[in-house]
Design brief:
The complex is a heterodimer of chains A (305) and B (186). By secondary structure, chain A is of the alpha/beta class. Chain A contains 13 helices and 7 strands. Chain A folds into 2 domains: 226 residues, TIM Barrel; 58 residues, no CATH class. In chain A, 45% of the residues lie in helices and 14% in strands. In chain A, helix 1 links the parallel strand 1 and strand 2. The longest helix of chain A is centred in the middle third of the chain and has 18 residues. Chain A is globular, with a radius of gyration of 25 Å. Chain B has one domain: 2-Layer Sandwich (Alpha-Beta Plaits), CATH 3.30.70. In chain B, 54% of the residues lie in helices and 16% in strands. In chain B, helix 3 packs across helix 4 and helix 5 packs antiparallel against helix 6. The chains are: A alpha/beta (305), B alpha+beta (186). Chains A and B meet through helix 1, helix 5 and helix 7 of A and helix 2, helix 4 and strand 4 of B. Chain A: It is found in: Nucleus. Chain A: InterPro entries: Pol/histidinol_Pase-like, RNase_P_p30. Chain A: This is PHP domain-like protein. Chain A: Pfam families: RNase_P_p30 (PF01876).
């Protein structure tokens, strides 16, 4: 089972506060936490390197997996967001659209991982399913941040957040939603089960609410990881443990004569088929190209005839 | 005879931003700071009032009248900051949401707090068992993380909690009896 995720914990320079927050999230039972750095609205700075230090300056709970994430404001659809460069520095990239057009752009074309809306303000237009549906089908998740509803002293912000959340749940039909805290202080964080209950009060079933804390964010994290590390986002080499121990190899060396003969006559086919399958355990070996596969096949059929 | 169905919420009060941290330094581990005891000024009546106000704020008159009817605090332990709250089965989610929205204990105490619902149970017996299990678990975790009495504060707390647990068991048994007689009368 996937663990509980909280993919939006704002990063602060106050190390003690951050350490406390991280320890408390661990205490509440979260497994994956993303520290967020929000770029100020307007143009991105020239140096995109993450201000979040990679090994954090304090001991972190061993069970917890920490990721780095950045938020970028989409104020103008024409500007260049330099997302490929950002991808090198962060594990996750979230876009925060400010109006209708940038939201559409984020849903349809931008290569971000998460769309995070500021739910405390009122939107002029209702959300539409086709727009959000394309985002969900592209693997982008829509984020609901609940801490504003808890911490905010302004009742209209609270009201807006709840009504927007309910609308989003209705429009997306509960698909592709994920919950995160965006807690400015430790007090905005809630335990996973409490968040699930909150979701069910807001009209999302308990099952979907649980998905919003486990399955959906996990798929975002894994998809983002694959985008960065794997070959064209499709093929990834997984470390499958060490190769079988050495003694077998020594045996083969000891009896080279005995092995060659039977292999030539009887087990020729078997040996060929063994060669055809790529060995998944060796990390450096490239997958066989199509041309090479065709050649192998031709040679094989020729040999049979 | 038809019984009135209830849900029992086992609730933990956590103190993430403890005020004692600055005074005592880093002597006490974070685990204990989060599970700090609640001041005695906060008692069952205030807890009930806080929950009622929370429901009224979130759900209005409808909420208070639907969910407030069977509301009762069955058990409250300031030492472990644990409570068992009884609420009507159909509307326990409202109470739970109201608990989630609590950020602060009210005036006489005035400490920021996070309320975590640990378990929802249909019978009070299971709720009690959960409370006892949790208390044991925390003591075990503190002992293992500190590895052998380096910290005198932790030791004394562990001892006092252990002593307290026997007393708690007796109290819980009393509650159990009281509850049974109550449900019979319904």
């Amino acid at each position: 089972m996937a663990g509980f995720h909280d993919l939006n914990v704002p990063w602060t320079k106050d190390t003690k506060e951050l350490q406390r927050t991280v320890a408390f999230l661990d205490e509440l039972g979260y497994d994956v936490v993303a520290l967020t750095y929000t770029y100020p609205a307007g143009r991105l700075p020239a140096d995109l390197a993450s201000p979040v230090p990679h090994p954090l300056p304090f001991p972190t709970p061993s069970r917890l997996r920490l990721l780095r994430r950045c938020n970028i404001f989409l104020t103008d659809s024409a500007s260049n967001f330099r997302i490929p460069q950002l991808q090198q520095h962060y594990d996750l990239i979230a876009a925060r659209p400010t109006d209708e057009r940038t939201l559409q752009q984020a849903c349809q074309s931008l290569d971000v991982d998460i769309i995070s809306l500021d739910l405390t303000q009122k939107f002029e237009k209702h959300f539409k399913y086709p727009m959000l549906g394309t985002a969900v089908s592209r693997g982008i998740k829509i984020e609901l941040c609940y801490s504003q509803a808890i911490l905010s002293s302004d009742p209209t912000a609270k009201r807006n957040l709840i009504s927007n959340a309910v609308q989003l749940i209705r429009v997306t039909r509960g698909r592709g939603l994920m919950f995160s805290s965006e807690a400015k202080s430790v007090l905005g964080v809630r335990a996973p089960s409490d968040v699930i209950n909150l979701a069910s009060v807001w009209g999302l079933g308990a099952e979907r609410g649980k998905d919003g804390l486990t399955k959906e964010p996990r798929s975002v994290v894994e998809f983002a990881r694959l985008k960065r590390q794997s070959f064209k986002g499709i093929v990834d080499v997984v470390y499958g443990g060490e190769k079988p121990p050495a003694p077998e190899v020594e045996k083969e060396k000891q009896t080279p004569k005995d092995q060659t003969n039977p292999l030539k006559d009887q087990k020729r086919k078997a040996r060929e088929s063994m060669e055809g399958t790529p060995v998944s355990q060796s990390g450096e070996e490239k997958p066989i190209s199509k041309r090479q596969m065709k050649r192998n096949k031709k040679a094989k059929t020729g040999a049979e005839q | 005879m038809v019984r009135v169905k209830n849900r029992y919420l086992v609730v933990n009060f956590l103190y993430p931003a403890s005020s004692t941290a600055s005074k005592s330094g880093d002597a006490t581990p974070e685990l204990l700071q989060f599970h700090a005891p609640t001041p005695d000024a906060f008692h069952t009546g205030i807890l009930l009032r806080v929950v009622r106000e929370g429901v009224a704020e979130l759900f209005g008159d409808y909420g208070t009248s639907m969910a407030g009817a069977g509301l009762k605090v069955n058990y409250w332990s300031p030492a472990t900051s644990t409570a068992i709250i009884r609420c009507p089965r159909e509307h326990y989610e409202m109470i739970w949401a109201a608990l989630t929205f609590i950020t602060k204990l009210p005036k006489p105490v005035d400490i920021p707090v996070i309320v975590q619902v640990v378990r929802v149970s249909g019978t009070i017996r299971k709720a009690e068992e959960e409370v006892i299990r949790r208390a044991k678990q925390i003591i075990c975790r503190v002992k293992t993380t500190d590895a052998g009495g380096k910290n005198p504060i932790v030791d004394s707390i562990a001892k006092s909690v252990e002593k307290r647990r026997d007393a708690e068991n007796a109290v819980l048994a009393q509650i159990d009896e009281a509850d049974e007689s109550e449900s019979e009368s319904d």
